[in-house]
């Protein structure tokens, strides 16, 4: 190859930088996929999916024992302000010095968030999911999401072998 042919080859690549950039930008891993628009072919209603999850999960028996605490407490009879205060006090217990208190608080928040704080067979499945959504919103407004995140983080740091 002489100097003229080499110069022409250097100026005439197979892909220009612009074409290469366009190819990279169109790679599937670089494209944004909105998950909210995805239609699951086997998805059932929210209530049915939750029910199926707990039927396959070992937590169902534990959840029943956690629920007993709320059957005694009368949670469903409290007005929203008293429920809010209860949630805030339970969140504060996530920082308790005793492990059992922290675990108990986490279990209580779980029951509240799942709408399991009503007496057995007191509400239909649809109502229970509405209770779960309303309770979860109330817990979020009380700062439960942040508090649980920090509690998990503290727990992980205590057991972190890579300190």
TrEMBL record:
GO terms for biological process: cytoskeleton organization. One of its GO terms (cellular component) is cytosol. Residues 35-160 form the Far11/STRP N-terminal domain. InterPro entries: Far11/STRP (IPR040185), Far11/STRP_N (IPR012486). Pfam families: N1221. Transmembrane segments: none annotated. This is Far11/STRP N-terminal domain-containing protein.
């Amino acid at each position: 190859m002489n100097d003229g042919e080499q110069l022409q080859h250097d100026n005439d690549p197979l892909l220009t930088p612009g074409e290469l950039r366009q190819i990279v930008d169109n790679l599937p891993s670089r494209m944004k996929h909105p998950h909210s628009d995805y239609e699951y072919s086997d998805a059932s209603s929210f209530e049915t999916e939750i029910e199926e999850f707990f039927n396959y999960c070992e937590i169902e028996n534990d959840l029943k024992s956690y629920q007993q605490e709320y059957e005694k407490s009368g949670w469903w009879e409290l007005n929203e302000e008293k429920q809010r205060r209860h949630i805030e006090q339970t969140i504060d217990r996530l920082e308790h010095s005793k492990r059992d208190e922290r675990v108990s608080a986490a279990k209580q928040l779980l029951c509240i968030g799942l709408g399991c704080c009503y007496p057995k067979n007191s509400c239909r499945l649809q109502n229970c999911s509405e209770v779960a959504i309303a309770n979860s919103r109330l817990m979020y407004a009380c700062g439960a999401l942040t508090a649980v995140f920090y509690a998990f983080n503290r727990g992980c740091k205590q057991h972190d072998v890579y300190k």
